[in-house]
Amino acid sequence: MKSDVEELMPRLLPVDCGEGTEDVDLSGPPRNPQEYLRQVQLEASLCPDVVVAQIDPKKLKKTQTVNASVAGCLAAPVGFCPSLSWQQHQVSNFSDVRQSISKNRTHWNNHTLDDNVQMPKLTDEEGWKRFCLGEKTYLGSSSSILTEADQEPALDYSKVGFPPLLSIVSRFNQSMVLMLLDILISWFEEREFVPQLGRWLYALLACLEKPLLPEAHSSIRQLARRCAHLRSTMNSQEDEDLPALNLLICLVARYFEQVDLADQPE
């Protein structure tokens, strides 16, 4: 007898099931295509029409909260907001950088890294912080300004952080780019801005492909809000970190089209 489902949904492949399905063995592999299709039909007929999931309420958390912030950026203090022409110029330059990276990715990916470049394992978050920011910044034992010893030819990048060289970032796939962005933005949430961080954030944004994944939207918006917060605490327009913070906000808002976060010139 045909089931109700079969009455409503005619078979795409006619199968001769014989007199019955008693001789169909579900425990063994099918011996031919005809027997395979008969097994599939028999298994489908044995499935209940309605299935109810057995959920143990005790295993569920008492409170399940999803935090999804759509808040905008804090407005720039008077005199701290970049002009619209400046923002447009930065977006144009950034677009050129992205095109150059895309064009030369294969070349730099095949470029041999120096012996002193030892990238951490994929899951080593603390290792990546040390790699990008340097031991001094990671441990908070020194300011981000390089000393005379740091500026010597034999520069120890493990102390001051490896720069985001094309030979390094060209090896990152999109999941790696997103992971590293999340690591550095999370670090930035609780600390002040440093030049090493700015260089890496710019490089990773330049490698971030469009259209953005949902998690990428969340990360870069978090970055723009953090930059805007730090900017709102500045006392001088001559602060050396102001251009970098304005640039990151500009790229997130203007290039990646998070327009509600964009600075509006006075």
Automatic annotation (TrEMBL):
Entry coiled-coil feature ranges: none
Top-level taxonomic group: Eukaryota
Pfam families: SIP1 (PF04938)
UniProt cross-references to InterPro entries, sorted A to Z: GEMIN2, Gemin2/Brr1
Gene Ontology CC annotation, any one: SMN complex
Subcellular location: Cytoplasm; Nucleus, Gem
UniProt keyword annotations, A-Z: Cytoplasm, mRNA processing, mRNA splicing, Nucleus
UniProt key word Mitochondrion: no
A GO BP entry: spliceosomal complex assembly
Subunit structure: Part of the core SMN complex.
Family affiliation: Belongs to the gemin-2 family.
Function: The SMN complex catalyzes the assembly of small nuclear ribonucleoproteins (snRNPs), the building blocks of the spliceosome, and thereby plays an important role in the splicing of cellular pre-mRNAs.
Protein known as: Gem-associated protein 2
Gene source species: Poecilia mexicana
